Amino acid sequence: MAAPPSKCRVCKEPAIIDLPRHNANFCAEHFLELCRRQVVKAIEKFDMLSKDDRILVAVSGGKDSLAVWDLLIDLGYRADGLYIGLGIGEYSDISGEYAKAFAAERGLHLITVDLRSEYGYDIPTAAKATKRVPCSACGTSKRHLFDKAALDGGYSVLVTGHNLDDEAAVLFGNTLRWDVEYLARQLPVLPARHGFPKKVKPLVRLTEREMAAWCVVRGIDYLVDECPMAVGNKHLAYKEALNRIEAGSPGSKASFYLNFLDNMAPLLSGLSAAATDDLGECSECGAPTTSDLCAFCRTAQKARAHDPVPVELVLSKGRRRR
Amino acid sequence: MKVLLRNPRREIEVDGKHSVNSLLASLDLPRESHLVIRNGTLVPGDAALAADDTVEIRPVISGGA
After folding, report:
1. Among A14, A96, A104, A204, which one is least packed by beta carbons within 10 Å?
2. Measuring CA to CA, how many Å separate A201 from each of A55, A56, A103, A252, B64?
3. Is the interface score ipTM higher than 0.90?
């Protein structure tokens, strides 16, 4: 005889998702409630946002950024979106369509920035020109443009969709290297400083499986396909390793990251301030930097001097086969 | 049953009776990094899948840091 279907821990109706880290199953309604509660808990504990804030959400067209935008609106915050066209071939074209459709269907304001037409380069070309891994050129470009858009637009807070898996994977990498400076900066809230907006990560208490489920239950269409340039990167390998641990010991990822914030981050807080106090201004764009040109302007300069590179040429043979 | 896989997008036919968990295990796909959607609705790990179900196994891991 088949086992009876699992039931929601709260209402005993049929469940739609099992969450081993909570040792519980949930129906759609109570799963959404759990997600809202986790976001509110993160916002309150780390003093991330107030209802008076003008919020800018960095949106990629993927599940996490659309979910955090949706959650903030659902919780009564005022939030606009920012989409950056990175020029990663068809992947960027499609991701932009998801971001624009999400905003249009909900009557939300989406700012768009196009790297190629506005700054004269794209990520595949930047990766080739700088001889660095694509995610490095991409991260440098996005961080700069997020900061600029938030400051230029008069937003009080920049929100990103980093989730528990993202933060646990970064923490894992930083710990493997005992990179104390990066560990000290790995916080869910970075306060505003000269040249930097306040930055917050309201999804740090939710996993990416939970965020994908949020999108499915809420009927949010998002780009499921992985960025072709991210395939095979270290961050993904760390996530896979942590998920193997999680499978045998549910709750490990949350303990690893959230206990770091409670127990270790306070001990490192002085180092974080020391690392960011001593900044000058970029001679080209005025952004904070430790050298004459900021990392963004250095990347842009090299990429603009290079012939445009199609994304296919930057992928390794191994990546193209997958 | 018809099973849609992603990254890259492809469809396979899976024979025999399966629960969500046993289907994932048979394809060597970790539970923590996938959602299973049956006929458009999310289903938990112990849900029984029928031969005429259309099932999507959706990966949830993304690589950007």
Report:
1. A104
2. 12, 12, 20, 20, 15
3. yes
